[in-house]
Amino acid sequence: MTYPTVRLKPKAEARAIRHGFPWVYADELVTDRRTKGLDAGALAVLEDGERRVLGLVTVNSNSRIVCRMIDRDPAAVIDEAWFATRLQRALALRETLFDAPYYRLVHAEADGLPGVVIDRFGDAAVIQPNAAWSETLIGPLSAALAKVTGVTTIIRNGMGRARALEGLPEELTVLQGAIDAPVPVPMNGAIYMADLLGGQKTGLFFDQRPNHAFAQRLAKGARVLDVFSHVGGFSLAALAGGAERALAVDSSAPALKLAQDGAVAMGAASRFATRQGDAFATLEALAAEGAQFDLVVCDPPAFAPSKQALEAGLRAYERVARLAAPLVAPGGYLGLCSCSHAADLAAFRGANVRGIGRAGRRAQLLHTGFAGPDHPLLPQLAESGYLKALFFRLD
């Protein structure tokens, strides 16, 4: 197959790409009329400034990430068989890690499918084609997914901020099969109800699985508060670990309904309660009520989704820590999480320590957690290591 050619500017650094960095930014590429004329998601051979071939890339001149490396072989044919090879490799890892088919199957660049996320829920899978090339090739991608995994229902979730950055419209479609109810997902002994059509992202956050498990170890006999709970991530895990009772707080009534349904499915409804409202206001209200918990976990959305939002995001994380710390009983535990890739571990930890200190509490840092192994990191791409979870013991 013959592909068009795109070229780095003479002063652009090609070494990083040769060593595995997967992106080319718009200011690094020669964007002449021919390059700008390529359709979003087109495939092209990337050359360095001296016309040496670097590999096959996808091109989208509408995006700040103008090229994404897709194959080191410049003659690669990106068809159903190519997708099947990548998916088989991803599946082999997940089947090694997990006994049941509930996991992130594809984690974008780290699994060789740039900008693509696939979460598996038993016989169903949700694809997030967050890059233009994957939208263009959704047909062979979904066909390979069905063939390799045997899933019978495939949903394309084209929603969210990442799509807008690629100039793609928001849309949600069922590509294969049908689904008419939330899917029960067993994880860490809990049962979560995942709404694959109406929930956040793909319906469930698999990335917190190891952090749920760590919190579960702290939860036996405990009073637990789960803030920004979504469908009950930490609270249902705590109940499965023997918590005395758990309260889930979220602004979304549908998410809390799914959490309640999960507690019912687990046989733990009598120990579970929900409270709908703004998280900051609810933390203040609970403090005014004199509430105390043995374990408090706060898992907010990304307060710092970009470098421009970093300063405000760190202030928000500090505020969460300051408001949550007074609710922790002496000797109890506080878990604080961030899914902001712009806030690195040191900055996030510093914000939390400041917040705990401003609340007048002294802390021991017990555990630092990250996303599970079904969310592998591409070492050359810091953005793929977005999730941080810190657990403190408070005096």
TrEMBL record:
Its main location: cytoplasm. SUPFAM superfamilies: PUA domain-like, S-adenosyl-L-methionine-dependent methyltransferases. Belongs to the methyltransferase superfamily. RlmI family. One of its GO terms (biological process) is methylation. It is found in: Cytoplasm. GO terms for cellular component: cytoplasm. This is SAM-dependent methyltransferase. NCBIfam families: RSP_2647_MTase. InterPro entries: PUA-like_sf, PUA_sf, RlmI-like_PUA, SAM-dep_methyl-trfase, SAM-dependent_MTases_sf. Residues 188-393 form the S-adenosylmethionine-dependent methyltransferase domain.
